[in-house]
Design a protein that fits this description.
This protein has helices at about 5-15, 25-30, 35-45, 50, 60-75, 90-105, 110-130, 140-200, 205-240, 250-260, 265-270, 285-300, 335-340, 350-355, 360-370, and strands at about 245-250, 270-275, 280-285, 310-315, 320-325, 375-380, 385-395. It is an alpha+beta fold.
Length: about 400
């Protein structure tokens, strides 16, 4: 029996189903599964948490869950048989937990996941009301629907309990994976300040050395700021808790603000191609988009030669803005271009070259861009042939209805 099942639930199920023929309900769930899942999909797709990423509104493990509940009811077909609680059934628990895990990895939080299970209960109830025979005893109908509702409530409880465990695991992963990377810029800053104090204590003061040392400390501070922002964004996205502070924002101003986050040497490598869609103003979170652009620029700097040019271009296209950040760096293989947006994903080439990073930057970028109703992807002609990061943002806010 799953750890989260309770005797109270089992007793209630046994009491409700005692003397009840559950076969009519089981038969309807089997016969009308396609209708149930299709109706549920329509309801789920209209929810605000799917509005910005409609591709997430797919069935996943919902058909398996419906089949599992039907199977439990079918096994309890005879009114004289002992009734087993659906919550005890491994297939019910497994399907519910698997669906919650998939949704969590897609960026949905516990409230959204629980809402999907409530919508499934609503759709099953609608179908049962439409298809149960009128001559069936009212008590059998009521008890059958209560058993189904208890099964779905139990499935929701199991899914959310598993999700809680997964959230704790993700938090531990964030801490373990990022601790070393956070320490690196702190160590650089501490070392630079020690050196600066040494240069200040010597006479005459070597201003050139002092300036270089303080520039190094400033660069490490900026790197740490970008890293902390990335960790915060990635954590919120993983927990399904990303919130945007939308306001009218100009893409050209946002790009220029992002450029200011680069050190002077890196900034000098950036070439602005065109007028950056000067008149384009969207309903965006400018601070979130600044973090996206900064991350893309930082990647372009990190993964290309020290003297290689980086191009930034923004154009108004089809009611939106298309931003491109292009470098002439190590490039990507075709199979790498999509998986890099997954959490902790880094290419073998990057690992082989020992380049720093935790594989969260593009994951955070994707979450922030898609929260705006936009799209982000990478293009490359292959290894050592450079990469272009594309971001497309709608100028008008996405209608959540």
């Amino acid at each position: 029996m799953p750890d989260h099942a309770t005797p109270d639930v089992e007793t209630r199920i046994e009491h409700l189903a005692s003397g009840t023929d559950l076969r009519p309900v089981a038969d309807i769930l089997v016969r009308e599964r396609t209708s149930i899942v299709g109706g549920w999909l329509q309801l789920a797709a209209r929810q605000p948490f799917h509005a910005d990423r409609p591709e997430r509104a797919v069935a996943d493990h919902i058909p398996v869950l419906v089949d599992a509940i039907a199977s439990v009811l079918a096994r309890n077909a005879s009114p004289n048989d002992d009734v087993a609680a659906p919550l005890e059934d491994a297939a019910v628990a497994g399907a519910a937990t698997a669906h919650a895990q998939v949704r969590f990895e897609q960026g949905l939080g516990p409230v959204a996941i629980a809402t999907e299970f409530r919508l499934l209960r609503q759709e099953i109830s609608r179908v049962l009301v439409a298809h149960l025979e009128d001559e069936l005893p009212t008590t059998d109908v009521v008890k059958s629907m209560m058993v189904v509702n208890d099964a779905l409530d139990g499935a929701t409880m199991l899914a959310l309990a598993a999700l809680t465990d997964r959230i704790e695991q993700v938090r531990d992963e964030f801490l373990a994976t990022t601790l070393h990377d956070v320490r690196q810029p702190i160590t650089v800053i501490e070392g630079a300040l020690v050196l600066a104090a040494r240069w200040l204590g010597r006479r005459p003061i070597d201003l050139e050395r002092l300036t270089d040392t303080l520039d190094g400390a400033l660069l490490a501070t900026q790197e740490m700021s970008v890293l902390v922002d990335t960790l915060a964004d990635a954590s919120q996205i993983a927990m399904g808790a990303i919130e945007l502070d939308r306001e009218p924002a100009a893409i050209n101003r946002t790009v220029m603000t992002a450029l200011e986050m680069l050190d002077p040497v890196s900034r000098a490598r950036v070439v602005l191609d065109g007028d950056l869609a000067r008149d384009a103003v969207g309903d965006w979170d400018s601070h979130a988009l600044r973090r996206v652009i900064t991350n893309l620029l930082t990647n372009a700097v990190k993964y290309s030669a020290a003297d290689a040019e980086i191009k930034v271009r923004a154009d108004e296209e089809d009611g939106g803005v298309h931003l491109r950040v292009s470098d002439r760096g190590m490039g990507l293989l075709p199979e790498e271009q999509a998986v890099l947006f997954q959490r902790y994903s880094r290419t073998e080439e990057v690992r082989a070259r020992g380049l720093p990073g935790v594989g969260l930057g593009l994951y955070a970028c994707r979450g922030l861009v898609e929260a705006h109703g936009g799209r982000i992807w990478l293009e490359s002609e292959g290894r050592d042939r450079g990469t272009t990061a594309h971001v497309v943002l709608p100028l008008a806010p996405v209608d959540a209805d």
